[in-house]
Design a protein that fits this description.
The protein has 2 domains: 121 residues, 3-Layer(aba) Sandwich (Rossmann fold), CATH 3.40.50.2300; 92 residues, Arc Repressor Mutant, subunit A. Helices cover 41% and strands 21% of the residues. The radius of gyration is 19 Å and the shape is elongated. It is α/β, with parallel strands linked by helices. The model has no long low-confidence stretch (mean pLDDT 87). Helix 1 links the parallel strand 1 and strand 2. The strands form 3 sheets. It has a 5-stranded parallel beta sheet with strand order 2-1-3-4-5, sandwiched between helices. It has a 4-stranded antiparallel beta sheet with strand order 6-7-8-9, with helices on one face. A 3-stranded antiparallel beta sheet has the order 10-12-11.
Length: 229
């Protein structure tokens, strides 16, 4: 089966060549761009299956490229993996808020980058998320219709907010969500949820879920994700 066409956007030639070599070795078709403007042109013309996007670009930076791509009906469905420098937590959060699927910090391992690309493409190829479908992972079972959570067959007493947070994370395993995204998903009439209170709810969830609580992973400086089995 033919593999996806991937667009690599970075102003450093050695990084473009490194990423292109490792992706091509895995069978992916690769195109490259050195600027944000060139990236937009190639994305609109070639409709790649995924874009690897450096945030630190001359002229139009990566966040603006991401914003433009996600604001265009022709390109908004293309998953984006951001390349960021260490310490750029605010940029990572901003990119995820704009709709990027994942990120890798520089310096990075080519094997890790390829694994992230593979995971994002696998998630994109999966069936659309059914919000009402039961989720079963290991000994953890989540039943949205019954508003019920079981750990090894035993019911767990969660608040409405805790349930919404757990269900939101678990239905998209592997995806990193910022605290603000979790706030939007968990907001309800029963309680006010803030970005600060999200951490408190996560601590409570982990405690109540016991060993299954380790499935909720902290992504330092960014937010949380449900472990992708």
């Amino acid at each position: 089966m033919a593999k996806e066409h991937i667009l690599v956007v970075d102003d450093e030639a050695d990084i473009r060549e490194l990423v292109e070599y490792n992706l091509a070795k895995e069978g992916y078709k690769v195109a490259c761009a050195a600027t944000g403007e060139e990236a937009l042109k190639k994305a609109r013309a070639g409709a790649p299956g995924l874009i690897i996007l450096d945030l630190m670009l001359p002229g139009m930076d990566g966040l603006e490229v991401c914003r433009t791509l996600k604001g265009d009906t022709k390109t908004r469905g293309i998953p984006i993996v951001m390349l960021t420098a260490k310490g750029e937590e605010s940029d990572i959060v901003a990119g995820l808020e704009l709709g990027a699927a994942d990120y890798v910090t520089k310096p990075f391992s080519p094997r890790v980058l390829v694994a992230r690309v593979r995971a994002v493409l696998r998630r994109g190829a999966a069936k659309p998320v059914d919000e009402s479908a039961a989720i079963t992972v290991g000994g953890l079972a989540i039943h949205p219709g019954r508003h019920e959570v079981l750990v090894k067959g035993k019911a767990v007493d969660l608040t409405a907010t805790e349930f919404r947070i757990l269900h939101f994370l678990a239905r998209r395993p592997g995806w990193v969500f910022t605290r603000y995204q979790i706030v939007d998903a968990a907001r309800g009439e029963d309680a006010a949820v803030t970005d600060r209170s999200v951490d408190v709810h996560i601590v409570s969830l982990r405690r109540k879920l016991g060993p299954s609580g380790s499935k909720i992973e902290t992504v330092r400086g960014v937010g949380y994700r449900f472990k992708d089995e």
